[in-house]
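Look over this record before class:
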Amino acid sequence: HHHHHHHHKSHYPSWPLEIPGAQYSPVSWSAVTGWADDDQLAAFKTFRASCRPIAARRQPSTTSKPLGGSLRAPCRAAISAKIANAAQARRFFERHFRPLEISRLGEADGFVTGYYEPVIEGSRVKTDVYNVPVYRRPSNLFVRGVKPGATGLPNKGQVFRKIGRRKLVPYYDRAEIEDGAIAGRGLEICWLKSQTDLLFTQIQGSARVRLEDGGTVRINYDAHNGLPYTPVGRILIDRNIVPKEEMSMQRIRQWMDANPDGAKELRRQNRSYVFFREVQLSDKDEAVGAQGVPLTPGRSIAVDKSLHVYGTPFFIAGELPLESEQSKTPFHRLMVAQDTGSAIVGPARADLYFGAGNEAGAVAGRIRHKMRFVMLLPNSLDPVAQGRNMPLPKARPSNKIAKTEAASVASAIPLPQARPVAANRPAHRAPSHRRHRSGR
């Protein structure tokens, strides 16, 4: 049992930020490795897309998240700023933000995976070839605390169906739905060739379905059945079918194609099931993330929405296998939080969006890497900028301290307070192939 030592708040100046289970330390811009090598103009354009809904709000959003509504000031500046090149964009970010190195308590680095938008073949009508339905959200699906018909259901929380007038029971699981539990109700948006195509579309959260007449159906996450998400890749590793270091989305697909019976059993271990809506987008349009703005390949990230605010810029640095499976391509890019996923959990955890199609999928599928995370903190949050001259929190704890009892961590490093629960969570829950995109 963990005991919290409650300190009197008056002992410490109030640092404006508390992120559960995180450790962080302010750094200078010159200490941000790779900052000078990025193209901040590309990042600025993506940031500005996130800013439009933020700046348009009449009231700052009332959120309990650490950044609160503090993005409003830099967002309004971004919309009116005349930024024409990378140097101007870099100065914009340096003027309006301060860099904060961030990671999970007791760890030096954050963790990234990748995701993409599959392009798959399908049909508007059921045929011998296209016989796997893509379902829209059923009308008998209820989420506790959400009115029926509400747009955008939470990606966490209990989901029920009604029996008779009153009785609520858990929603059908993947096996029941595959076996036809909701078939024939007119919920079919289109039909795919295989359950594997459907599973991967559900994991990625959206898809472009190519029809034989040359048209395209665009589908996006709308809701899920509320049952826990079980990563199929993890099961293949645990059963010693695929070695951990060889795991990728490609490997899962290869194994499933070669073992249809095994694939069926494996899929059904993941009882979670995603429902889609059709979206009207042209082939030129990128998929829309949970914030409601179109994603930018190579600049948009999905983050843990219980901790982070959409629109927050993160500078992510390290090496990634972009060119090939073995390559160590230097990656230092300012990314913008525009999406989320139920598998994306923790303060320094991101899913990098790579765009649509097989090439994007091949790159996204091999990314499971430790990276350095620098969160850009709006100056409006900074106590020094507000003239209060407060001391900054001490530098991040050493690993040794962080591993000791959480309570003693709290007394050793008063700011931020360690949350024992968060500190003891398993490190990285979820590579990209276990991702479920979330609704808005």
Remarks:
- Confidence is low (pLDDT under 50) at residues 1-14, 383-435.
- DSSP finds twelve helices and 17 strands in the chain.
- The CA atoms of residues 55 and 72 lie 6 Å apart.
- The two ends are 36 Å apart (CA to CA).
